[in-house]
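Friendly challenge for the regulars: who can give me the structure tokens for this chain first? No prize, just bragging rights.
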Amino acid sequence: MQQAKNFYISFWDRHGIIPYHLGLTLFVIGGLCSCGSLKMPGLKASNFSFGSNVTPIREIKSEQDKKATVYIQGKVEKRVPLVKKWVYQINDSTDKIWVVTNQSNLKQGMQVVIKGKIRYQSIPLANQEFGEIYLEEE
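First reply, four minutes later:
Bragging rights claimed.
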């Protein structure tokens, strides 16, 4: 039995099949392991940031260009249905902002990335300004 096993291994080894399979196996395992620590520009596991062009909500100002398009990322905190639209409050740990969108499938607690135009709604009351910045999703 031992002689047959040695013959079998020596036959395949002589034709280079065992080193080939061993090398291929190590290559595949090495490739899979290296993907686990892959670092892409703008991809941060700790902040869950997908791109380097995500704007922190605290940096969005009412004076910004009204045609400016920004990407925000955060967690859905509140949702309010409107006629044919939805409004979601998004929190990114720097601040909160309301987003007007057609999407009805966002749930509270979901992490989202939203592209939208900066809007400002002026609400003057008793000689005071209670306006609010919001995003309108594109």
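Residues 17-35 form the longest helix (19 residues). The chain is about 25% helix and 35% strand. Your move, everyone else.
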